[in-house]
């Protein structure tokens, strides 16, 4: 039986199409015509010998085989890109300092640091997992090269100071988070039990503002200095909290706000900050890997099997 050699360019078109939700937009990203990308996808199906897509509404969605192909495509492209960077960047050294939010620590940090360390073993990486205010202060004072933040500056009236570059990654809707079977029910006469950080937090501020506007009584029943503490309290059914869908552990879930009579919440921009307009090559390379990982997470957040416009 002859070996199948999947075309990396075709696999890249597949992954890009899934991340962008459209093969037409993927064609622009990879620098090919829409008909060329369609031909690539058709060839992948022919090589695989199985249907990778099914009709869903007016578009296409991945079959189970397509999901398997997508997962392997991401791994193959990651190795390809990692090899390309590694052979060109063997001389990189020095140090890079990265700061990020708690919800991205477990979901993204091991993959990002693993890829970077394999490609650039002579570069020392320092990672800090902290809250927004701390990250902003560190990058403004030159103690971080890169920082991943929730940018609430528009809502809270401050400006990003001491930042050399800002890259917008996603606009993530906030959502009510709680146990899979929340104990609080609307109309019960009890204030909504809230779980909050023990310091000022833009998520908590947005939640209480929305509740006050909707005329829903609330009370803080639990505070924690860490996101892990909030997840544990939510899983135990002590109350509800507010976050985005990024980094949600399996023990909690995004609640159906309409069914529970809870008000809608705003979205929050996710941004990558650079300490300067031009960073050392090692820092720029780490920024590239972080952005690639975040694009994949953003695609997952927007909803697993995407309907694609062919």
Automatic annotation (TrEMBL):
Residues 6-63 form the HTH lysR-type domain. This is LysR family transcriptional regulator. Keywords: DNA-binding, Transcription, Transcription regulation. The keyword rRNA-binding does not apply. Belongs to the LysR transcriptional regulatory family. It comes from the Bacteria.
